[in-house]
Structure formats: C-alpha cells, structure tokens
Automatic annotation (TrEMBL):
The keyword Membrane does not apply. This is Ketoreductase domain-containing protein. Belongs to the short-chain dehydrogenases/reductases (SDR) family. SMART domains: PKS_KR (SM00822). GO terms for molecular function: oxidoreductase activity. Pfam families: adh_short. Putative oxidoreductase. Keywords: Oxidoreductase. It comes from the Eukaryota. Gene3D superfamilies: NAD(P)-binding Rossmann-like Domain.
C-alpha cells in the first residue's frame, strides 16, 4: 500500500468489521461509534466511567462496553487480552481517548497532571498499537485510526502539553505508515478542529459533533489517510509563516488576558 497521503487506501468492509474504540462514551468517540454501528460494524467502546458507558449503550443499543483506563499500563494490557479473547474478529483499533488540560505555565507546576496527559494521549495509543498489531496482522483486513488535532499543527498557548501530545500522534502516525505499508493494516489519522464536546471542560464552541463525525467518517470510508475538516484542513497545510500568523491570532483570542504569564 502506498504511504503517500494523496493516494487513498482501498475501502474496508465495515459491514463485517469489529472495532475497538477508546473513549467512546461521549463526544467524538460516541459520534464515530454511531457511524460504525450504522455501517454494520460490531463496536466496543471503552472509558473510565462505567455510568457514562452505560448511558452510551442506552443511546446506541448493541454497543459493547468495557471499563478501561488507557492511561494505565495494566489496563491497556488487560484490555488488549480481553478484546482478542472476547472478539477474535477484532480488526479496527480507534485511538480516540484523550484529555486536555488548560494551564497557565506561570502558575501550573503540576508534574503528575502533565504526565497523566502524556500517558493518556501518547503512551496509551502507542502501547495499544504495540499490543494489538500481532492480532491485527492475522485479520483479512485491518485498520488503526489515530486521533490527533489541529492543535498538533498550530500549538495552543493554553495547552502546551496538549498540543505537543497531538503533534506527537501526528508525527508517530506518519512515521509508522511505511512499516505497515506491506501489511494488511491501513493507518489513518483524523485531525479534528475545535468540535463541541467535553474536552478540556464542557464547551459548545466549535463544529457540531454529529456533522463533524459524519463528514470525517465518510472520508475514512473513502480511504483518505489523513483526514482534516474545515479549519484543520487549513491548519495542517505546511505553511510555516501562515501557521505562525494563525498562532498569533489564536493566542490573542484564547490566551492573552486570560492566563497568568511569567513576568520579571
Ligand atoms: N473536541 C475537540 O475540539 C477536539 C479537537 C481536536 C482533537 N480532539 C481529540 O478527539 C478525541 C476525543 O475528544 P472529545 O472532544 O470527544 O473529548 P471528550 O468529550 O472529553 O470525550 C473524551 C472521552 O474519552 C474518555 N476518556 C478520557 N480519558 C480516558 C482514559 N484515560 N481512558 C479511557 N477513556 C478516556 C472520556 O470518558 P471517561 O472520562 O469516562 O474516561 C470521554 O468519553 C481526543 O483524542 C481529543 O484530543 C478533540
């Protein structure tokens, strides 16, 4: 399979797919889960709160749920073992779970919290890919979908660690594609712009979740490898000076005056 992002993958048969999607009780994860279910896939979603998973199951009958924290090594190992035993036809992994901490570096020195953000957003996806690749290689066709962010391309001053974790996921995904190119595993990246969800605390600005999920899911079914949407299609374009201008504008809008900064 070609590694070029301008060449599409051949479509997957989603009517026979089994999908493990992390962080699927709400937000973008639940929206993507709904699209997979509509396409006829068997879908297992994970999350830390059992109550939220049960609510998701009520909204989407047929959804399989599993309590699991992607930020913990032992949970990831247990999840991968459980998923393969319980759903041996598992062939799609969606690394969706993520958190965002909004911080002022001048007053926030909480290392455990920073480390948790890195563990959930970076260690989780990479470890799950390592754990499940041997199983995915045995399937007739398979896919891994990583969620990065427009903020992985243009960082946000209110979340330096968050943006960096998403840049990590973008870079990792691009760099991993050649290793999988001769295999049955297709490697996708979804790059959301701001989407209405609970990320970083409840917010209703950004793209409507349902519209966003339907649009990116369509691009995924068409085999597009690197999937942007509206602002993230602009932000992911490699234009250093243009991106610097957007960074300055966004910092003015979302950071300056709201967060404490270092002063001498
Ligand atoms: N919304 C946006 O504007 C936006 C933009 C760019 C990228 N993204 C990315 O899109 C993905 C989904 O975000 P979202 O906006 O849908 O956020 P969300 O509304 O906060 O939903 C995140 C979901 O992930 C689960 N989760 C969080 N930490 C977890 C963990 N350690 N283990 C397992 N599940 C966990 C949460 O459930 P529990 O709390 O019960 O675990 C929740 O159901 C993230 O990777 C995010 O970085 C979002």
């Amino acid at each position: 399979m070609s590694i070029s992002i301008t060449e599409k993958y051949s479509p997957l048969d989603l009517s026979r797919a089994t999908v493990l999607l992390t962080g699927g009780a709400s937000g973008i994860g639940l929206g993507l889960a709904e699209n997979f279910v509509k396409a006829g896939s068997t879908v297992i979603v994970t999350g830390r709160r059992e109550s939220a998973l049960k609510e998701a199951q009520e909204k989407l009958p047929g959804l399989h749920i599993k309590v699991s924290d992607v930020g913990k090594v032992e949970d990831r190992e247990e999840l991968a073992k459980w998923a393969v035993e319980k759903h041996p036809e598992l062939n799609i992994l969606v690394n969706n779970a993520g958190i965002q901490r909004r911080v002022a570096l001048a007053e926030d020195h909480d290392w455990p919290a920073r480390q948790l953000e890195i563990d959930i957003n970076c260690s989780g996806p990479v470890h799950l890919i390592d754990l499940l690749t041997p199983h995915l290689l045995k399937q007739p066709e398979a896919a891994i979908i990583n969620l990065s962010s427009s903020l992985g391309f243009i960082p946000c001053a209110f979340g330096p660690t968050y943006g960096a974790t998403k840049a990590f996921m973008h870079s990792w995904t691009v760099a991993a594609r050649p290793s999988y190119a001769k295999s049955n595993i297709r490697i996708f990246e979804i790059i959301p712009p701001a989407v209405q969800s609970n990320l970083g605390g409840s917010h209703d600005y950004g793209e409507p979740t349902d519209e966003f999920c339907a649009a990116v899911f369509k691009k995924f079914t068409e085999g597009e490898k690197e999937i942007g949407y509206k602002a993230s299609d602009e932000w992911r374009a490699p234009d250093r000076l243009g991106n610097d201008k957007i960074f300055q504008e966004q910092t003015e809008k979302t950071f300056n005056g709201k967060y404490k900064v270092f002063e001498k």
